[in-house]
Each structure stands twice: as C-alpha cells, then as structure tokens.
Design goal:
The complex is a heterodimer of chains A (317) and B (455). Chain A is an alpha/beta fold. Chain A has 11 helices and 9 strands. In chain A, helix 1 packs across helix 6 and helix 3 runs parallel beside helix 7. Chain B starts with 5 loop residues before the first helix and ends in a 12-residue tail after the last helix. The chains are: A alpha/beta (317), B mainly alpha (455). At the A-B interface, helix 1 of A face helix 9 and helix 18 of B.
Chain lengths: 317, 455
C-alpha cells in the first residue's frame, strides 16, 4: 500500500510539473509574447527589442493575408510600427539584422501573393548591412528550432516581465508598456543610458554585400515596388564620437548612393538629436524619437541628392 | 555536464536511470554496473575528454595497490611501504596538476629565478577523487575494505552523482549498497524522495546561489572601491552564495543517487547556525571534515599526545584543509585562520568559559563570513581591500545597496537560522517539489558552474 502511494506520488510530481510548466508557457509564450520577442540573454536595452528571428515566418504568414509595408533593419529600426509610422501597416523584419544577403534570400522566398501584398519597403543602412558578422538568419527557416526554442526560452526574467507587463497594462494609461501591431507587449519605459560606440569589427564593409543590395534594388524594380533607404539617427554627441570612423561610414553610404537615389540621411534630426529624451541610448531612438524622425522623413527631410548631402561625408561642425 | 543543465536533467539522468534499471530487470547486473560506470565516465568527459586518462590511470593504480594489501605476499615489501607509495602517488598527482604552478611561482618570487610555469589545466574533480582514493588505500591497509573487482571499484570512484564535488564517500559505505540486490529494482520511495531532494538542491543553486553570485562577483571585482555597506553586502552575498551553491550541489547529488537506491552521506547540517568554530566544522562539508579527522588529524596523533601536540595537530589539519581547497596564499591564510580559531576555541572550552548563545553565534558567523573573504578573493591584496572596506573607519558611508539584495540577504538569514527541512515535508511534498522544480527550470538559462568544481 505504501509502495503504491510513493508510485502515485512520483507520477503526481510529473503531472504537476507538466501542468505548471504548461500554464507558464501558455501565459508567457501564447498570451504575452506569441512571437518570442522577449529574449533574456540580452542587455537590459535589448531585452525590450523584438528578437523576431523566431517570428519571421509568422510575419511572412501575415503578408499572405494583407498588404503591408516591409521594414528591414536592426535594433535601430525595430520600433518602427503602425504607432510610430503614421498608421502605416508595417511588418518589421529587423531580426534579419539588415544584412543584404539575408534580406535578398527572404525576398526571393516570397511567393507571388506575398510580393503583390508589399506596399513599400523601407531599409535601414546600418553597420550590419554589409557585414558578415551580423548575419542572424542561420536558423530562420528551421521550424523545429523555432519550436524547441519557444519551449526552453521561458526563463525567470521573461516570466517576470510578462507579469509586470500584464499588471502595468491593467493600471497604466497612457501605456508605457504597450501592445504592438502583433499583440505583443513592449516596454518603452527605459530611461536614457549612455553606452560606448559599436565595435569597429561590426563596421567592416564587405563588397560582396553591396552586390546583394544591387540585387535587392533590381528585385523591387522588377516587381514594381518602391524601396526607400534611410540611415539611423544618433545623438549629436555620438556623431562627434563617430567622426573617427567617418571615412568608412561615408564610403559605405556613398556606395549605396551609387546604386539608388532613394536615400534619406537621418543621422542628425534637429529636433531629436540634441535631446536624449528621444533616445534609449546614443544609437537607439525611443518610440517618440522614431515617430518624429519618420515624420521628418515623410516631409522630405534628409533626402539625399548627392554624396555632399551625406552627414559623414561633410566635415562636422 | 552540469547538474543544472537541460542536457543533464532531461537527457542524461532519465536515460541512465531507465537503462540501468532495465538491465537490472533482465538480471544483467554486471552489465548494469558497467553501464553506470560508462555513463559516469561520459558525464565526466563531457567537460573535457582530455581529463579522462588522468582519472582512469589514478583508478587503476589505486585499485592495484588496494588489492595488493589483501594478497599473500612475501615480506620483502611491507604493507606500510606500499601504502606510503600509494599515498605519495596520489599526492604527486594532486601536487603536479594542482600545485606545481603555485610552487614554481613562489620559487621564482623567493629566489628571483625565472622558471616557466606549466600552465596545466586542472583535471576536474581531482581533489575529490584523490582524497576518496587515499581513504580507500588507508581503509584497505587497515583491512576495512572487502575485495571487489575493478568494475565495482570503478563504480565506487566514478559514480556520477558524487564524482565531481563529493560528498567524499568511503569504500565501505558505498560498495555494500551497490552489491545489495534490493537496490537493483526501482524503489518509488527513493525516487520520490530523490526528486524532492534534487528539486530543493536545484532551486538552491539556480535561483538562490546564482542570484547572490551576481552581487558577490560584482563586489569582489570592485573590491578596491567598495563602501562600508557594499563591502558587507558583498561578503554576505558570497557567504550565502557558497552555502547555497555547495549545499545545492550536494542535495542534487544525494537526490540523483537516491534514484539509483544509493544513499550518500549528508554534507551540510545548517552550518550557519553554528555557535562555535568546532560546531561549524561538524556541520559544514561534513564528509571533508570526516576525511581530515580520520586521515590527517587522528594519524597525526589527534588529542592523545598532550595539549600542545593537539594544537599542532589541529593547526596542521586545517592547513591541509586550506591547501586542499586551492593553490594560493588566500586558501592557506583561510586554513591558518580556521586552525587558529579551532585552537582558540579549544583553549577557551578547556578553561570552562561559557558564552551567551547569541553572542557566540554572532562571533562565529562573523568569523566565518570574514574568513570567506580570503576564500573568495583572487589574491591577498583584494582580500585586504575588501576587509579594509568592511572595517576601515574612513570608509563608513551608508550608501544603501539594491533593495532586492538587501531583502534576499535578510531572507537568507531567516531561512538559514530558522528554516527546517521538516517544514517542507509531509503532505505537500509533491506540490513543493514540482513548484521548486518548475521555478528552477525558469532559471536554467542562466548557466553557471558550481563553486566547488574549482577545488
């Protein structure tokens, strides 16, 4: 009899464990974060940016069902969404980290319906665009890894912020923890924090990826789509700090200009770059900052007609 | 392979468990033992397969020497000589891998010589399996071990729950358990208890120790610039980290062993409740204390040769304990301080003094907390920086540390002083185990090794 009880106890342990873990899984991964965008092994800043490498396939599904503007970029463009871009319907593929080959592969994988559903494409020109080290698409097309990751990517931090997000959204208005276009809760309440400039190894320019950019432009032209390129906005202090890399940055942007003339240089935006309240750190805009910068772009600010207009090609003040 | 990893919890442990008992259910007992040895060696090699020949050769030599004690031999070589050779072999192995660079560095320092250090990688668990095998040799010499074949001996040394960081076990307490037929069938009482103990250990490690580790590491990295409160918060964080880390490991080891119907000795008994230093060493890393008592203190003469010799023996024992923990002056100072404390306590007790319990606890706990500073600091200079911040008068600024750190330090005090394992038992055992286990799983992404893997 006693023996039976212990056996029952052991089995009950496993049932409880599976039940409890499933509850947490459903709450965090299905209710709060269905696109697995909260990632724990990141810095405090990046935890709030969507790490949608696991959700890219889901975004592509959306493109089957309706018309969207596509945004390609990095963490510096991840906050572009309907709320920050004049209500446009946006699918933000920042998780590809803006590498031209990754983007080209994704565009080539689109079927006819998906291509038809593209309204416009916005592409950030960042350090990662032409850099091998920044490729993030190696497991993009693996459904198994997506699934496996979702099961184990359930940690104390994710659980904690899921609870916090839920509570804050019940009591807080206007929402600092807001639900984005995909029903994902995001936190935009971090205050500005200085950080050092990007390591130079991530700025290396690889000619191979310029050719991929040319192919991306050809792809959009052949399919009758518009693609607009823009540069990230930084603080004035960062602009001065980055002068030591100005030749590299200038050459990279000139190279883009040699392929397309639809380029907006938004490196410094007057009403934004001088005020850290529009930034999470010197390289990353807050949502408010993103809204202002995109409005400026829509009004024609930053349109580049020649390389003389590029910020890093001018001598700074 | 770490106990606190997905691969251990969800693959290695269940797979080993099921195959072991499957083989036993088919009456393939030798095969099941062989499988357990191979699994343990796989577990050991997971970190670095380069370590494998070291442990295998150590096992082979010790087994051969141990067996030779029970054979009819000519009197050409006495048993004592063989034992001495065996112990020297183990000490050489430990000395070569663990202390050679320390020795060379000190020779260079004293003589201004410039000998190159060997930069050897310390084989994992070498301190533990070496001590365990020295104990085996001594026990064999005293005819306290029964003869077993190499497979059994390998199982005794490599059994994966206790292989890396103990508890340090005796041959005579393990082998009968492996041989017992009753232990070859699944025992749900042990499984249930094992899961419970394992879950508690896992939670202690991943949720509590690793949280304190963040503050302790951060504080010790900045030892030179800490304020009064920060320094105390750092030292207390490490004191709690070490306890929860090591006792968590031990709980996981005991829990995992129970799944295989093997009872490992307990290693901790609420050590921070100790009211004097002797009491502390009866509660902290109990199997190491037992080893040092049985194989160092008593062979040196223990307390049988007068007071002064007893003091010398106590001092020597704790010096060995300090050196065993690591090749560095910080560990030696730590051992020396504990040796002096033991002598002081003995003198104090012999004089018949009594101390108020609360005062006794405060003195004991603070002594332990302060000496852990030497144990943790990367060198003596850092240790003194930390102590200066803790006691330097000009440094007393009361800038508070984080709220979570403060709360957890107070919570740890309450749990360690008033908590009893019995509170968790009874009807809620399953719910508590499952809850702790699931909560621990949420912390598994925060990968970290165990502190005692370095020793």
């Amino acid at each position: 009899m006693k023996k039976m009880n212990y056996k029952k106890q052991t089995n009950t342990f496993f049932i409880y464990t599976i039940f409890l873990y499933s509850l947490i899984y459903i709450f965090v991964n299905l209710f709060i974060d269905p696109y697995y965008e909260i990632v724990q092994d990141r810095s405090a800043y990046n935890r709030k940016h969507s790490e949608s490498i696991y959700s890219t396939n889901m975004l592509l599904d959306k493109l089957n069902k309706g018309k969207y503007n596509l945004v390609f970029g990095t963490s510096r463009s991840h906050k572009i969404g309907s709320a920050t871009f004049s209500g446009k319907k946006i699918l933000n593929f920042h998780a590809l980290y803006g590498n031209t080959e990754s983007i080209l592969n994704l565009l080539k994988s689109l079927d006819k319906k998906q291509i038809e559903n593209i309204e416009s494409i916005y592409m950030l020109i960042d350090f990662h665009t032409f850099n091998e080290k920044s490729r993030h698409d190696d497991i993009l097309y693996s459904n198994f890894s997506n699934y496996f990751y979702s099961v184990i990517n359930l940690d104390y931090y994710k659980f904690y912020i899921s609870v916090v997000y839920m509570i804050k959204n019940l009591f807080e208005y206007p929402f600092k923890h807001y639900i984005n276009d995909f029903g994902v809760l995001l936190n935009d309440s971090y205050s500005y924090k200085y950080r050092l400039p990007e390591s130079v190894k991530y700025m290396a320019f690889d000619e191979k990826y310029l050719d991929k950019l040319r192919q991306i432009v050809d792809f959009t032209e052949n399919n009758g789509k518009t693609i607009i390129f823009f540069t990230p906005t930084i603080t004035q202090k960062r602009y001065i700090e980055m002068q030591k890399y100005k030749d590299l940055i200038c050459d990279t942007r000139k190279a883009v200009l040699s392929i397309t003339n639809k380029v907006y240089d938004l490196t410094l935006v007057d009403s934004v770059s001088g005020d850290t309240k529009y930034f999470s750190d010197p390289d990353h805009l807050s949502s408010d900052g993103v809204s202002i910068v995109l409005k400026s772009m829509e009004s024609g600010y930053g349109k580049v007609t020649s390389s003389k207009d590029l910020f890093f090609c001018k001598s700074y003040y | 392979m770490l106990f606190n990893s997905y691969e251990y919890i969800f693959l290695f442990l269940p797979l080993t468990f099921f195959v072991y008992f499957y083989l036993n259910s088919k009456r393939l007992t030798e095969a099941s033992k062989g499988f357990l040895v191979l699994s343990s060696l796989f577990f050991y090699s997971w970190w670095n397969v380069v370590y494998l020949p070291v442990i295998l050769s150590s096992m082979l030599v010790n087994y051969t020497i141990g067996r030779s004690f029970s054979k009819d031999r000519s009197k050409k070589v006495s048993k004592k000589t063989i034992l001495t050779i065996g112990i020297l072999f183990n000490l050489f192995l430990l000395g070569y891998f663990k202390y050679m660079d320390f020795f060379i560095e000190n020779i260079n320092f004293v003589t201004d010589a410039n000998f190159s250090t060997l930069n050897l990688v310390l084989p994992l668990a070498i301190s533990f399996f070496t001590f365990q095998q020295i104990a085996y040799l001594v026990d064999s010499y005293r005819n306290e071990t029964h003869e077993y074949d190499f497979l059994n001996y390998s199982l005794f040394v490599t059994f994966f729950p206790q292989l890396i960081a103990g508890p340090i076990v005796h041959h005579k307490e393990m082998m009968p358990q492996f041989a017992n037929v009753k232990n070859k069938v699944k025992n749900y009482r042990n499984i249930s208890l094992g899961i419970f103990v394992f879950s508690i250990g896992l939670f202690k490690k991943v949720a509590i120790a690793d949280t304190f580790a963040v503050w302790a590491n951060n504080g010790f990295d900045k030892a030179g610039v800490l304020t009064f409160i920060e320094a105390w918060a750092t030292s207390l964080s490490y004191t709690f980290q070490l306890y929860f880390d090591f006792s968590g490991y031990t709980d996981m080891a005991i829990g995992a062993a129970l799944l295989f119907n093997i009872r490992l000795p307990i290693n901790f008994n609420s050590p921070y409740k100790a009211l004097n230093i002797q009491d502390f060493w009866r509660r902290w890393h109990m199997t190491l204390s037992r080893f040092l008592r049985d194989y160092v203190y008593i062979p040196l003469g223990g307390n049988k040769d007068g007071e002064y010799k007893t003091y010398a023996n106590l001092f020597a024992t704790f010096l060995v304990g300090g050196i065993w923990h690591g090749a560095g002056w910080t560990f030696i100072v730590w051992g020396v301080l504990h040796g002096i404390a033991m002598i002081t306590h003995r003198i104090y007790s012999r004089l018949g003094f009594k101390m108020n319990k609360i005062l006794a606890w405060i003195i004991t706990f603070n002594f332990i907390n302060i000496t852990w500073v030497f144990f943790r600091a990367k060198d003596l200079e850092s240790a003194f920086f930390m102590l200066e911040a803790m006691f330097g008068i000009e440094n007393i600024t009361f800038i508070p540390v984080g709220a979570l750190q403060t709360i957890l330090i107070f919570a740890a005090f309450i749990v360690l002083l008033y908590g009893k394992l019995k509170m968790l038992y009874a009807d809620n055992i399953v719910l508590i185990s499952a809850t702790l286990f699931v909560m621990s799983l949420l912390f598994l992404s925060r990968k970290s090794s165990f502190l005692y893997f370095n020793f």
